[in-house]
Prior knowledge:
By secondary structure, the chain is of the alpha+beta class. The protein is 48% helix and 14% strand.
Amino acid sequence: MSADFLFELGTEELPPKALKTLMNALRDGVAQGLASQDLAYDSLHAYASPRRLAILVRELAEQTPVREVLTWGPPAKIAFDAEGQPTKAAEAFAAKNGLSVSELATENDGKADKLVARTRAGGQSVTELLGGIVNDALGKLPIAKRMRWGASRTEFVRPVHWLVMLYGEQVVDASVLGLQAGRQTRGHRFHYNRDIELFSPHDYLETLASTGYVLADRDARRQLIREQVEAEAKAVNGTAVIDNELLDEVTALVEWPVALLGNFEERFLSVPAEALIASMKEHQKYFHVVDSNGQLMPHFITVANLESEDPAQVIDGNERVIRPRLSDAAFFFETDLKHSLESRRDALKSIVFQKQLGSLFEKTERIAALAKHIAAELGVDTALAERAGQLCKSDLVTEMVLEFDNMQGIAGYYYARNDGEPNDVALAMQEQYQPRFAGDALPTSTTGAIIALADRLDTITGIFGIGQQPTGSKDPFALRRASLGVLRLLVDKGLDLDLRQLLESAVMQHTGLTDTDGLVDRILDYMLERFRAWYEDLGIPVEVFLAVSARQVTNPLDIDRRVKAVHEFYQLPQAQALAAANKRVANILSKSDGGAASVDPQLLQEAAEQALAEAVATKTQQVTPLFKQRTYTEALTQLADLQEPVDRFFDQVMVNADNEPLRNNRLALLRQLGDLFLAVADVSLLAPSKS
């Protein structure tokens, strides 16, 4: 037998940014609790709105499964005396299992005859367990800070007001967070702020919606909001820009969503669109609208938590609220335009970047010098890079950024344009922060990429240089993300730069570093190790990366080309045999005295060694220009042809011949063979290790 189970906890308005997490955690907690009791059910659904968390379990079994429990006792020879009477050992075993001695059996466990107790477990009513399961799930919710209310010692994320627990049509006799379970829920705070009696879990969603003006299904409510917002934008021939985080937050703020379109004065469109969007999104939770060209339109969409009889009044109220917000943004922008980014540099001298690393002004000086060096290495305009480095943090002291911190860089772009700075310098103000996260866009301009590199390298070398590098899970300066950003910039932007040289240049810009022993090597190892996870995410086996890493190359772009080439080689049918051969070569050479400096053709006696020498010479001629061009994939594909002569050589030729000149000549041949592959990677590391 089974029935549906409904749990609903009514609360004060829950934290909107935490609602989805709380809902999912509650679902997982209840599911784990049911599983721990072996309770079968058909499906489990979680619901959430600003004032409630709910779980609906379809076809939940009415009791735990009944099973036989087999418990072995003492051997029969100990359980009974010579007259066959039970001993104290038998009586104690029976009492322990709640049985009489006569209810015990004697069976063989495969080793000896023993007493055995056969009992039945399970069959507990689900209604007796649900209170504990729910309380345990609520206790495990990820709540950073719980609160108390009234005189109660009960704690939860918000005060609780009602509790529904129904199994079928029956109220579950349970207490949760100081509330006794019942069948009364409540409707919308404004539309229907009254009790609603629930008679069946099956009707939960429909009853709340039709009577209480509450859409309890968060996912359905989210989808409805999306559709309403899109429809409102379409009405003015625009497209709503729906940010998923904002959509989640709005979904968590309303129980009966009604999207409404509002307007603002076109004069505000002279302000950077990003500032207007930030004001609408952050302060008012509005969705903005763009035209077919992606340009901001003078409209916004708000989602009300009620169905007003006079929606025009609601819209007017929102327009009155947004107007001063946008006026502030316009004022900040117009005020900032009166001062150039250059004139703001002095203000950076009073802002500490890091106590031991100096002010933001000093950081910009270091960035500018390093950017100039990088530009020279790349053969691009050094003056642009230096100028961008000098100005890159000036917008941090503008009114706009002080009000909207997410405008840093963006504001700098607009102000640099206003100041008449070159377009590349202006772009660098914004692009210096890219990539902000995995998968984020990269700078479009070379100058932007250079400043993004210089900024990160300055931070990484500085923090390592004062001994505050990441340890374990602690990374307060986000150096892991900065390191991955550097690698992405170098690889994905195709910047042919040596990371060791970049780090040496970055360290030179600092004064007062305290932890300088082996500093560049430590940073280099740390940064290049980020590549391991990078390639694992791409599905490239770790041994491929290790084969390249063994060559100690420090140019990330070159490393990437090698890894991808070795990965392709690794998938060729000849790869395993050649990897094993290279491993054998390495082992032989490590145990030898070095052999001859070069191969003497006159000492090649066996046909197999003559064939290998000819093949190695031919391949050397073919792949040497490929190595110079770094076309490693083609080079390794060419070298795959060596499998047959290499196999024949090891099958037919004794390397460690008694004749010393002959032996040294063969060792020289093997060294030439190994060096061909080592020009790309240590492919011997691709060979499977013997277990």
